[in-house]
Amino acid sequence: MNIYQEQIMEHFHHPSHHGTLDAPTHSYSANNPTCGDEINIDMIINDDVITKVAFNGEGCAISQATASMLLEKIADKKITILQKITVEDITDLIGVELSPNRLKCALLSLETAQKALSHPTDSSLT
User: Fold this and answer.
1) pLDDT 10s digits, 43-87
2) Half-sphere exposure of 59 (CA within 13 A, CB side)
3) Which of 99, 96, 34 shows the shortest CA–CA distance to 69?
4) Which residue in 37, 48, 88, 102 is a FRET match for 108, CA 20 to 30 A apart?
5) How far apart are CA 96 and CA 78, in angstroms?
6) Does the domain made of 3-119 have the CATH classification 3.90.1010.10?
């Protein structure tokens, strides 16, 4: 197994930022109907900085490990960092070549996190 595959399995079995947040300011859930992967991402954003972030869901090792790696990358960063992440950034993060279907699995967390930015929760309005 190469280093990237080991990293994917480590994040799958011991994900970073896994769980939910109490009173997130932003939250979004999405799924990949092709394979059934599901991701929910909660964020607390203060002054355009993602101060806390968490994910939960179910799915393949690629979707869940990518969520863990992505959230490590954006935690405590300005939202512009998340807004600028591209497909190429995700494939670099994963480090292994993916089929088109597996690429959809890897991109689910990015798409969900980016959509969460435009979905404030009720708690963010108080």
Assistant:
1) 999 999 999 999 999 999 999 999 999 999 999 999 999 999 999
2) 30
3) 96
4) 48
5) 27
6) yes
Predicted TM-score of the model (pTM): 0.92
Phi, psi of 27 (to 5 degrees): -155, 145
**How far is residue 52's CA from residue 38's CA, in Å, rounded to a whole number?**
20
CA separation for the pair 66, 12 (Å, rounded): 8
- Name the strands in the sheet holding 37-46, side by side, starting at the edge strand that comes first in the sequence: 26-32, 37-46, 49-58
Site of tokens 């992967």: 37
- Chain centroid, CA 67 distance in Å: 3
Q: Where are the domains of the chain?
A: 3-119
